[in-house]
Structure prediction request, 455 residues.
Amino acid sequence: TDSCLTAIEGANALNAFAHRTPDMAREMARAADARIAAGDASPMTGIPVGIKDVFCVKGVPSQAGSRILQGFKPEYESTVTRNLWTAGAVMLGKLNQDEFAMGSTNETSCYGPAVNPWRGAEGVRLTPGGSSGGSAAAVAADLCLGATGTDTGGSIRQPAAFTGTVGLKPTYGRVSRWGVIAYASSLDQAGPMTRTVRDAAIMLGAMASADPQDSTCVDLPVPDFEAALTGDIRGKRIGIPREYRVDGMPAELDALWHKGAEMLRDAGAEIVDISLPHTKYALPAYYVIAPAEASSNLARYDGVRYGHRARLSQGDGITDMYEKTRAEGFGPEVQRRIMIGTYVLSAGFYDAYYNRARKVRALIKRDFDQVFDDGIDAILAPAAPTAAFPLGSVDKGDPVQMYLNDVFTVTLNLAGLPGISVPVGLDSQGLPVGLQLFGRPFQEAELLNQALVLE
Ligand code: GLN
Prediction:
């Protein structure tokens, strides 16, 4: 804990931590020491972790990267963080992220972007990815031993790929969403971001639990994920989806994808060509469904109940208060999503957009069901269409450019399946590239074991 706190002090330039909690960390570390001395330790006891800002931690600023939650200190604890503290983990602070987890570069954050510890040509500063960019940067720079992330459309897996770390998005319902500030409730899922697959297995085991406070969280026993890591994948059938070989994909990314398949084959798996025919509709469906749910979830930020309230003028009524607060409190990307969301949910357009997107979502899910029914155990694909790129290079006037970065990740959230991103090598610029494995529902143990082979 002390060495992490020192490392954090020396890493201001990464802007990974939004709020630090050194006193809390030292106190929790002392309690962990006592637990270890008493022989009452779990594998997470005394492990210093960072928490994405979107998780409510009692008494600690929790803003989800948004100005509208300035000054908000929750009176309650998210189930995930409560589980981590119960296991003995140590809280280092809150990690930077895109505002309300909307973004793929960490540049929509009210704290300014987190910075990737990897550098581009001539030392240029790169994005750590997003929305869990602070988590990825902190883990990659050894500021913590693990971090929590959330993944609504790739926000754990893409930043892991951009920083050479491991990121696991569990099956929808494996981890409780209670106390996690909502973006798109039918897609959001929390998971671990770590240096190694083994650490991800340990951390997921501590984060997951049944939870009566989240009706979508399943009441299944949490397996010993670490014990499942045998490295034996003989006879497993791994699918390579041809639809993920998109136009304009860099040849070296294709080569690393090939290398990943070879590693699995060398370990005794069978590599099978598969088809997920509705893949190309995933991105448009996601960018209807996620904003629709977000527009509803974000209606609660009205200047009355949480955080920021605009300064009002004489004669302003309650509507002025709502409007001014929301105009000041939400950044441009969040405002855009609210507008898209309310539009696709409005009476005249609901069937044309939202309902159609829901049907597409069902077809995407069916593609995966079909492949798993045919005996495929996991699917191997790139985690992102590029390696990390320079901060500031996405044209602010063209948000679709940023959305396109999610082309390989959103399918999994629409289908509710588990996925893990693992670093497999470096590109010609010396930057890390990640591959992801998709697994069957609630088979995270098997998925982690397969991922071990790619490490
Ligand atoms: N980049 C995607 C978005 O902006 C995914 C974000 C996420 O997974 N939270 O919606």
Notes: The mean pLDDT is 97. The radius of gyration is 21 Å. The pocket of glutamine is lined by residues 101-104, 131, 150-155, 183, 290, 406 (CB under 6 Å). The first helix runs from residue 2 to 9.
